[in-house]
Amino acid sequence: MKIASMLAVGWIGFCGITSFASAEDAHTIAAPDDVKWGPAPKVLPAGAEAAVLFGDPGKEGLFALRLKVPSGYAVPPHTHPVDEVVTVVSGTINLGMGETADRSAAKALPAGSFFALPPGTAHFAYFDEETVIQITTNGPWGIKYVNPAEDPQQSQ
């Protein structure tokens, strides 16, 4: 129940980011200059920016969002309740699998790369350069850290 409450609180701020279109709209077009960045949800480590391109990650249904992270950014081992379908738009994500953030086991995925992970798959990521990724999947989206002490919301 506590995790569900934390996810809901995190998404309240996230859903405040203006999206270009809801899933009910006929079509959506977004040129790079149209993307409006705002703070990423507090469920992610500080420093990332987010832009919802389509839909609402906090509700059932299809959505697309972009995350922009600075060099040196890292997301500790975690899982998601839904499929995670990711395209690397720019930069490089270093993606590792498992419940321990063993950087030597991570794979560097440069711009143009794609990965899809089923729900509940433990993974981590770190970034050596500014990177933009796009997550396109069905909501509601959330994140559960393998080690609850690494959840950014625990320190707030």
UniProtKB/TrEMBL annotation:
InterPro entries cross-referenced by the UniProt entry: DUF4437, RmlC-like_jellyroll, RmlC_Cupin_sf
Keywords of the record: Signal
Signal peptide as annotated in the record: 1-23
Keyword Disulfide bond: no
Gene3D superfamilies to which the protein is assigned, alphabetical: Jelly Rolls
Pfam family, one: DUF4437
Keyword Signal: yes
Protein name as annotated: Cupin
